[in-house]
Each structure stands twice: as C-alpha cells, then as structure tokens.
Amino acid sequence: MPTKRMRNPDAITLLKEDHKKVKALLASLEKATERSADRRVKLLQQIESEVKVHATVEEEIFYPAFRDAVRKKEDRELYQEALEEHHVVDLVMPEVKDADPAGEVFAAKAKVLKELIEHHAEEEEKDMFKKARQAMEIEELRDLGARIEARKRELKSMGSPRLGQATGASRRAASPSAV
Asked: Residue 145 in contact with residue 136, Cβ under 8 Å?
C-alpha cells in the first residue's frame, strides 16, 4: 500500500523540505548563465521569498522552542549562531540583488549566498535538528509543525511583508533596541 504524506508533519520535516527546495533553487541560479539575466532575477526573487518565509518561521516558532527545550550551554549557542547566520544572509541578499544579473559579479555574489545558505542548512540538519529530536517529544514537534504550516500560509497570503528587510529576530539579536 502506498504511503501517504504524513497528515501532521513535524517541524523538522517541514524545515528540511524548505532546505531541499531552496538548495534546488540555488543550484539553478548557479547554473543560470549571464545570457539568462531574466531567469537569474526570477530565481533570486523566488529564493528570497522562500528564505524570508523560512527564516521567519524558524525565528518566530522553531528557534525559541529549541532554545527553551535544550539544557546545555553549547546547544543554546546553536540558537544564537543560527540567528547570526540569518543576519548574514540578510546582509548578502541585497548585495546580490543590486548586482547586474548579466555580470560576473552577480554570479560570484550568488555563489557566496549559496554557500552561506547551504552551510546554515547543513549545520541545522546535522546539529540543531538532531538535538531538537532528543530534547522534544514528537507531539511537540508536530505541534510546532502545524504552527509553522499556518504561519507560512499567512506570510505567503500577505505577500510576505518581511521580504527585502531583515527578519525581526535577527535584527533584535544584533541590537536589542532595534524595532
């Protein structure tokens, strides 16, 4: 009997699906040539949208739950590092967007963005997600998954108002007085 997709996927499963989708988009962007500037622009817009929605749900829902569930200082440090990695992506994304999509500089900046995002996703999957599975019950992870799905739907229906700006938690992590 064929397996149906889980009715209530857990948070980690959803976040890994996002990683897979963004990695595929980044690979397509890397392969897009200078002659396909329009394609580069469209792919970058898609990547930005996916990354902003993903970062928002992580920062608002998953990361705080992870931080509260783990007990070791080094595990809580993963939370801070993840926020800082989001912040770095927020800094690099406008640089890529501002580059001429038909130029070599665009390709170089896009490659750096790809490496940043892939490194971040790999660290989450290798370290944070494993520790989250140890620290949280499956029902809690499923509840977080339901919250993530609902928030993603909300962000996408609103046209993702946070696009083009740093996500709130990463700004706050960098500066407690930031709005």
From this structure: no
